[in-house]
Amino acid sequence: NGTTRTTRTRAIRGYRTEERADPWLDPGPGPGNMAWDNTPPGWWGSQGRGGGGGATDKHLSLQEWIASHRHGGSESANGSAVNIADKRKKHLEESVRILNSLTEKIAGGFKSKGDSKSEDEISGIHPSFITVNNVVVRVSSNNISAEFVLFNGYSQNGREDETRKENLAMDALGRMAYEMIVLEGGPSVSAFCSAKLGAATEESLSNAMSIHDGGVTETVEEDEIVDMLRKNPRMTTSEVKDGRGLISTMLNAGVPFPLCRFVSDLLDDEYESMFRSDHSFSSFEDVVSDLKQMMEIPDRFLHASSPDRWKLSFGEKLYGRDDDIRAFMAAAERVASISDDPIIDGCAKLKGKSRDVIMVTGLSGSGKSRLVRSAGVLLEKRGWLFLRCKFDRVAHPEPLSVLAHAFDEYFGSLVICPMLACQDNACSRLELQEIRERLKSIISPEGLEILAKHVPSLLLVLDEKMPPRTIEVNEVMMASLFGKLLQVVSSKRTSVLFFVDDLQWADPLSLALILALINGAGTDILSSQSNHVGLENNINTMFVGSYRDNEVDDDHPLARVLYRLESDKAVHVTNISLLRFTSETLNEMLSDSLCVPIRRVRLLSELVIQKTDGQPFHVIEFIHALTTDNLLTHSFARGWEWDADSIDIFPVSDSVAELLTYKLQRLPKEVLLGLQIMSCFGSQIEKHVLSFVADYGGESSVDMMAAVEVALSKGLVQQTAQLVSFSHDMVQKAAIDSISADDITPLLRKLAASLIKNASAAGELGSVLFVVVDLINRIGNDATSCLKQRMLFANLNLRAGLKAIAVPDFVAAAKYTECGIAFLGDDKWKTQYDLTLRLYEAAILSHFSSHQCNRDQLKKRIDAIFEHAKDFSDKFKTHCVWIKLLSMTDLAMAIEESLKALNQLGEPLDLTDIDYNAVCDELAKLKEQFSGEREKKLLSKNHLTDCNKERAMQVLASLGVYYHQRRSFLGAYVACQMMKITMTYGHCEYSVFGAVAFATSLVGTLDDIDEGSAWGRSTLSLMNLYDKAALVSSIYGALYGFVLVWKEPFQLQLEPLAQAIRASVAKGDVEFAFINITFYVSRSFFSGKNIRVLIGEVEALARQQGNHFGNATSSGKLVYSPLLQFYLTPAYNTLRDLQGTTDTPGKEVSFPVEKVMFSKNDDIIDAAILAKQHGPLHLVLAYQAAKSVMLRDMDNALKYTNLYMEHFETNVSNMKYGSIWSIFYEALITFHFMRQTGEEYYKVRGENALLRMKKWLRYSDWNFKNKLLLIEAECYNTRKEFDKAAKCYEASIKSAQEHKFNPEEAIANELAGIFFFERESYQKSRIFFLQSIQCYKKWGANVAATRVEQSMGYRFD
Q1: Do residues 256 and 302 make contact, with C-beta atoms less than 8 angstroms apart?
Q2: Residue 794: exposed, middle, or buried by beta-carbon count in 10 A (0-12, 13-18, 19+)?
Q3: Beta bridge partners of 943
Q4: Nearby residues of 220 by Cβ (< 8 Å), 6 or more positions away
Q5: Which residue in 360, 357, 363 sits closest to 566, CA to CA?
Q6: pLDDT digits (tens, 9 = 90+) for 563-595
Q7: What's the confidence (pLDDT) of residue 343?
Q8: Of residues 678, 656, 682, the one with CA closest to residue 367
């Protein structure tokens, strides 16, 4: 275009450098007239050349390198075929590397897609310099590369210029590549290509440029383009056009087809360097991409030697999921990162800081399961354990069996591996032994027995038999046991990935269990020592769930679980949403799968995206459909080929289901029928179930295993040693949907009959019970007319319901029992009385215990039994449920019904003339009657055999609880009646409740601590006659919280109370957990347990409560936990106020403050007074009084102790809420105000408290001595008997130190410091103040310690 630019011709290693003019149309001297610096030809090849290449590098011209391979090939002519092939293979791979290094340099001169460089910034190698005699090759020991010796730079002058020059450069590179790979025996490349570069004339260049310069009119230009397109229409297949014989020539020369195609596409310039065909290269980016694929995977993209290249396989590689995998691994890093400091680690576990959850969402077929499996494989290589399970859309298996399967598979592999002759046999045996020991140390024998029913392989691991027993369990207990099972398999050395697939189909019980496991079910959140956290809670588990988000709306059970996880500050939820394939991702996948360069599959990718919307599973099935219809075919010579136009008009399916249906219809009839039968059992089926239904159709039955083998070869199913499963849920759905509506019920009937017959004959009906019941309930009662069959189906539903109750899964049990009732006839109470009664009783228990209780249906079933039962014995179970139901809403009515039941049982309880004095008289009478060798008398009684008497004891036990809830003295009278029955007729398990209730009444009503404590120890002996572990939760709270508290050291009572909490949590006894936690937390605080440790425990207990409460009911009203609101929140507030804020700014508090209605202690006091909640009121007043004394906020301290006196000392109450610490702080506060005001009123209150403490001292010197001494010191100080006061202060400090009461030691030291300061004994005062500070800091009360320090500053500065 007439402009002149100055560029530099660079000399590299011996070439001259000169400045000269270089117009585009005059490229200047080419490689043919290069000037060498007197360097002899071949010198680089024989001697090597310096210049930074390294001592081992060798440099030679490309011509010499080609010649060396040509001569090397000739020298090897007599060698073995293997050697020749290996050398040829090496030569081709080196050729590709050389071409790649040169192409990267050429590509730099052309503007790529998205390139931000301006036209003037782009300069590159002139096409005339891209020749073999202008290239130097550098050969090192592990690499080979090349670069141009001379190159003439140029600048761009418009897109058309650039396009033409890029095409010319590709042509030149193609010529070079041809010369490099066709070593001998072939024609010159000029035989296939017109001369364009080396002999390019100025005329041809000018003609080519005339289009750009406007030398040809626009009309002429368009005509030329149309003419060229008419001569060569669009190629619609991947097959390479070889009209010139170029590819055939290269193939004959031993060049693999991918490389032939590469060269041909470079030389595909049929329109004088302006336009290229669809499959030729359009940019150097594509050239570089092709070469890199050849280098990275030469077997597939260069040599075409991959053994499975003719198979359509998508492999295990994940495409387009790199970010998702990184998010996955980041969460795994958080879970696996454990501190080496056991205290820090323990606290982190208590506060739940390492609970990570990943939720993978997406549409069906988006690759959710595959993503998690791939991540699981990566984590397994890092030493993780990968547990997995999957829910099913169709089948309703045994409750908890899905989650149990994950553990069963792992423990089964532990047993099998040591039996195999493998290299890791010794390691496997060691692991098995370690797991066996952990099972026995972490889980009780009873717990192992329960778990073995769900995880059969546990028996193989334990290598022992377990006696068949019926053990009553509940939902919380099961969660605790599965949580402990996670503790067994998890440790600091082994993290666990627990994957639960298809959560949208999970049943409510399983969802509840998963939530409980995430929240740490089964972990011991209490410390075993006073000042150390529990260290056995190292459960490094990451929970991963997947679900179809388009199937989960706001009302779905899973949505509620997700909301609770997201709102839990202690849970870190990572959400991974899988999107559709992008064009780039699909390009990469198709390229890898078809062994075709990325640029050649772009058009195919676009078509597939249009047809499938990019859904991964749909994409895969669509491509398989193309192969089935021969629109995508494989040639061993040329690889995979397709017809783009035919694919373009291929029918579009609305969903992948249509493709799968089409695929199934092409199967042989027997194979399709086999898949249909399998689909009736869900997405996976155990092989032994298949064996039971093998003869479902008699002689016309399909050979199921043969059908499985064919389906396996088609990729429709997968199998393990025990299971056959569909490759995807959508395959199973397509199979079952292919059964016509008229055929499905008869098929289900045949399968159910065959399964019942064969499993019963083998004695294994119990193992397939839920599979059978699922089939018969899908048949339904309307389709079952045979009376005998209806009774059988009802009975099987009863068995399933009872088994579900034993799990317990009350939702499933209610479904099974209601289905069983539906199979019964209208005259069921007359013709099937026993079966009907048992079904109704099971249905009532299921509805009552279920979180999804249908109250109307429950009341209907209860009324039916009350109407049709023959006698009260048949009504008793239902009556007990009815009483419990009433107790939730109408306590008075529940008491009335309990009294009616006692009348029916022959143990009437007449309460007409019973008042408080009568109760005291009855207690005193029985105390005398049973005195002396009471324990011997109690234990010598026979076991109670009278059924009605035992039932009466059961009713009395619950009646006593109801009276206690009403704060009535009649609870003590009920305890007396229970002990009368025990001492007259013999003892039963309920006698233990009666004994502890009697002991509590002696202490609380008669103030007889000696006799009550004696009965308390008798209760411990009586517990040993029964299942003590099962009774701990219900007995220890009252025993150690109220009875033995007076005589046993306070600190020694913490462990029994902790045992009671563990037992009640494990059993799911919510009511007793409430009592045990209340006593444990308050006792820990006042006994001086380290505040930091206790805060961790309270947070964990509060979070546990918050996970069960604080959620909106169907009415929209929030349900709050009474324990969390009225007992744990006050304790937590007090502890935090004393400790101070030690958390870093912005750090979230682990206590669930958002799940309580009142968060401040003063508000809780007001709420408790308004609701007449005396229990929490007396406790929070004790906390507030203690804190106020420690912080010397004496006005507030007086306010709280006055409230205590108002509600618990001056008011006449039938229940005595005596509080040791309330009386202790009452004395300290009132003596303080006596000295301040001189009012006699305070002196009287203080002396009354002193008298009560003196009375208690005789029961326990350990518990009360230091308290009494401090009260006496304050009393003497008030009386101005200073010498006695000084001695009592020092004695109190010494006693508190010896008996490990840190808070009271700190208080005594401060009061002594104040006393001696007022006596002007400043040195002694300073010592006591410093000791007080030290005690507060040791306890963890940093705020109190700081206040004392400030107080010293005021006094001594």
Answers
A1: yes
A2: buried
A3: 987
A4: none
A5: 357
A6: 888 887 778 999 999 989 999 999 999 998 888
A7: 43
A8: 656
Structure tokens that stand for 705 in this block? 């295993």
Q: How far apart are the first and last CA of the chain?
A: 95
Provide the 10 A C-beta neighbour count for residue 106. Answer: 24
1059 Cβ contact list (under 8 Å, min separation 6): 1032, 1036
- Listing from the earlier edge strand, what are the strands of the sheet with 144-148? 58-61, 135-139, 144-148
- Report yes or no: 883 and 958 within 8 Å, Cβ to Cβ: yes
SS3 (DSSP) at 401: helix
3-state secondary structure of 917: helix
Please give the structure tokens belonging to residue 660: 């799968």
66-115 pLDDT per residue, tens: 888 877 655 544 556 667 788 888 999 999 999 999 998 888 766 555 55
The per-residue b/e assignment along 872-897, b for 16 or more CB within 10 angstroms, e otherwise, is eebbbbbbbbbbebbbeeeeeebbeb
Residue 1184 contacts residue 1134 (beta carbons within 8 Å): yes
CB contact burial 143-165 (16+ within 10 A = b; e otherwise): ebbbbbbbbbbbbbbeeebbbbb
DSSP for residue 1154: G
**Sign of the CA dihedral running 1242, 1247, 1250, 1251:** negative
Residue 223 neighbours by CB distance under 10 Å: 12
1079-1121 pLDDT tens trace: 999 999 999 999 999 998 888 887 766 554 444 333 334 445 6
Q: What are phi and psi of 501, to 5 degrees?
A: -95, 150
In whole angstroms, give the CA distance from residue 1073 to residue 477. Answer: 12
Q: Where are the alpha helices (DSSP H) in 850-871?
A: 855-868
The neighbour count for residue 695, using CB atoms within 10 Å, is 14
Does residue 1348 contact residue 1336 with C-beta atoms inside 8 Å? yes
Q: Residues 279, 283, 286, 290: is their CA dihedral positive or negative?
A: positive
User: What does the chain come to in residues?
Assistant: 1357
Please give the full DSSP string across 804-823, using - where no structure is assigned.
HHHTT-HHHHHHHHHHHHHH
Sequence-distant (6+) residues with CB within 8 A of 787 are 825
Eight-class DSSP state of 1142? -
DSSP states of 25-54: T---S-GGGPPBSSPPTTHHHHH---SSS-
The three-class DSSP label of residue 585 is helix
Q: What is the 3-state secondary structure (H, E, C) of 258-322?
A: HHHHHHHHHHCCCCCCCCCCCCCCCCHHHHHHHHHHHHHCHHHHCCCCCCCCCCCCCCCCCCCCH
Residue 947 tokens, joined:
């059924």
Report d(CA 1037, CA 1060) in Å as an integer.
Answer: 7
Cα–Cα distance measured from residue 611 to residue 588, given in angstroms and rounded to the nearest whole number? 18
Residue 505 gets which letter from DSSP?
A: G
Stated as kind and residue range, the H or E segment containing 387 is: strand 385-390
Q: pTM of the prediction?
A: 0.74
- The mean per-residue pLDDT over the stretch 888-893 comes to 86
